[in-house]
Design brief:
Helix 6 links the parallel strand 10 and strand 11. By secondary structure, the protein is an alpha+beta fold.
Length: 592
């Protein structure tokens, strides 16, 4: 029996996680190198690698954005400067591939300056403290080659540094029984990734060896010495075998009657057998990664064309997004939020999706939800709610601005104004860099298309809300209160604001309406007054003199400063045809 050697194909086992008394860190897997084992399965299993790459790309989508970027431009700009897209992509890939991911949080004086990707496979956890917390992580660029005497670098975990050093935020989802390392979510299918590699290697060997079967060469003239046997075997193998594995058995026998016998187990249906194994590997990996359809990864199965699978793709995309992709995204967002909180940055972060817009049913969604689901950015004007609209858009003019005309709006015609003044509300440097909409911050002197300068006099037109002093609708209550406090509005702001945000529930068929025309909605008892102001700063004129108003208005009219608006602006919706309702809407609420 000493002349027989047996090679066992070891079965897959879960990685061992053990505390070694000799080390302060906790080993992970055989030879403390389980992360590398996972990386190899990613690199050498075609299906496993394609799935991990595809899923991580779906998680990242088109990158992180914020629903309130327009309202918080400074915080948004800080976020974009702290977290780079390239690092975020690496973090997401490793979270899917290794079950964990690490971010290097660079701090200075307790403030986060930068968040960078840190290769998770180079880290090992320190033994937990008495509270079950990991206070430090140990770094080595190649744990398999670490020498016992080698000193390894210790890096504090997030929240355990001194505020002036690098800390490591490790994304480690909780799994019962795993205190130090989190297992991958596709661990049940991992053996099939290894099997797929093995099948590929075997078929390559078979091809390189000319698809020949196992050969037995018998020497029946006695058994030579061990040294002679090895030499003879080496000579035979060198002549008869390829470069991948041994396909020849060399046996030395006392005589022909005692020759070696090999029981052959032929595989007559080898092509079908390997096809079955390959399909089994593919199916198990698809299930293990919870991929709802191979089509999502660009893999077409069956004989049907892409058009025949359109419904399948749409359904599978929505299902995959909700049960697989979004949990990953929320996990990453929670981690980023926790880091940004150190700098008192609070944003409504979301990942912009890469799925086709036609796959998303946006009916009934408010503006923020629609942006989050589709990734289509709301404009600054459409992203604010009523209180913000009043505070940020409603202007309280200084004493330099004198009202020289107040009248109900003549909206019979809409003449274009000659020589419009270009808006002074230039985009900020940050908005140019990050390409987000113009800030909706307070702009008391923002220009309107209805503003003009004539003979050195600056004229502006603004609108105030007026009407029923005891309104019932929340929108009308707040707008009336703001008007009493002197707030006036530009025409552009009134026309562009999203009524679903500032006065939700009063739109027709869930579609926003024009606040400038229809105020608080159907049967509203309010209207806008047009007010013309002239800036009297530095002008020596008695503004209390009744002639001052006459002079100013006459000068404006002389030079063509006449504002024309649609008649509805000066009308209460309750006085309009159909009480301000859309012609198709037959459900008329009570007067307010």
């Amino acid at each position: 029996m000493s002349n027989i050697s047996i090679l066992n194909l070891s079965a897959y086992t879960s990685p061992t996680i053990q505390e070694n008394k000799k080390n302060n860190y906790v080993e992970y897997g055989s030879e403390n190198n389980y992360f590398q084992y996972l990386i190899d399965r990613y690199l050498y299993s075609a299906t496993n690698g394609a799935i991990i790459t595809g899923v991580s790309n779906m998680i990242y989508g088109k990158g992180l954005d914020a629903l309130d970027s327009n309202r918080k431009p400074n915080e948004y700009a800080q976020f974009k400067s702290i977290v780079k897209d390239s690092d975020l992509k690496k973090v997401i890939l490793e979270r899917k591939l290794l079950g964990m991911a690490a971010m290097q949080v660079v701090k200075e004086k307790g403030v986060v300056k930068q968040v960078l990707h840190f290769p998770m496979h180079t880290l090992r956890a320190e033994k937990c403290n008495d509270k079950g917390q990991i206070e430090n992580w140990y770094y080595h660029n190649n744990w398999a080659e670490k020498k016992p005497s080698e000193v390894i670098k210790k890096i504090p975990a997030f929240g355990f540094g001194n505020g002036n050093e690098v800390e490591l935020y490790v994304i480690k989802p909780y799994v019962s029984g795993f205190d130090y390392y989190s297992p991958i979510d596709y661990s049940g299918s991992l053996p099939y990734a290894l099997l797929e590699e093995t099948i590929a290697d075997y078929q390559i060997n078979d091809c390189q060896n000319g698809f020949s079967g196992t050969k037995v060469i018998n020497f029946n003239n006695g058994v030579p010495s061990e040294e002679t046997r090895d030499k003879m075997k080496s000579d035979v193998l060198r002549k008869l075998t390829g470069s991948r594995g041994e396909k020849v058995i060399v046996a030395f026998n006392q005589n022909a009657e005692s020759k070696t016998t090999v029981e052959d187990l032929p595989l007559n249906d080898a092509p079908q057998h390997y096809e079955y194994l390959s399909k089994e590997c593919f199916d198990k990996l698809i299930v293990g990664h919870r991929v709802t359809s191979p089509m999502l990864l660009g893999i077409r199965t069956g004989d049907g064309g892409l058009g025949n699978n359109a419904d399948e793709i749409k359904t599978a995309t929505l299902l995959m997004d909700n049960i697989v992709i979004k949990p990953y995204q929320l996990e990453i967002i929670d981690a980023i939020d926790e880091i940004l909180a150190v700098n008192d940055i609070s944003l409504k972060l979301y990942f912009k999706t890469i799925q086709p817009l036609e796959f998303v049913d946006t009916e009934g969604m408010n503006a923020e939800t629609k942006e989050e689901e589709t990734g289509v950015k709301m404009s600054a004007e459409n992203s604010i709610e009523l209180d913000e609209f009043i505070d940020l858009k409603g202007e309280v003019l200084s004493d330099n601005w004198v009202c020289v005309d107040e009248t109900e709006v003549d909206y019979e015609t809409e003449d274009e104004l000659d020589n419009e003044i270009n808006s002074l509300n230039k985009k900020s440097v940050l908005s140019k860099i990050y390409d987000f909409a113009t800030s909706v911050g307070s702009r008391p002197n923002a220009k309107s298309e209805q503003d003009k300068e004539i003979d050195g006099f600056k004229f502006i037109t603004r609108y105030s809300y007026t009407g029923n002093e005891s309104p019932e609708r929340e929108f009308c209550k707040k707008m009336m209160s703001a008007s009493k406090n002197g707030r006036v509005y530009r025409k552009e702001d009134l026309e562009n604001v999203n009524s679903k945000m500032v006065n939700d529930g009063f739109e027709h068929n869930n579609e926003p309406y024009n606040i400038f025309l229809y105020k608080g909605g159907a049967r509203c008892h309010h209207k806008f007054l047009r007010k013309t102001f002239v800036n009297m700063e530095g002008v020596k004129i008695d503004v209390n003199n009744p002639q001052a108003k006459t002079i100013s208005v006459a000068k404006a009219e002389k030079y063509g400063y006449r504002i024309r608006n649609k008649k509805e602006v000066a009308m209460m919706p309750n006085d309009m045809p159909l009480k301000g309702f859309h012609p198709d809407n037959k459900n008329l609420p009570k007067d307010v």
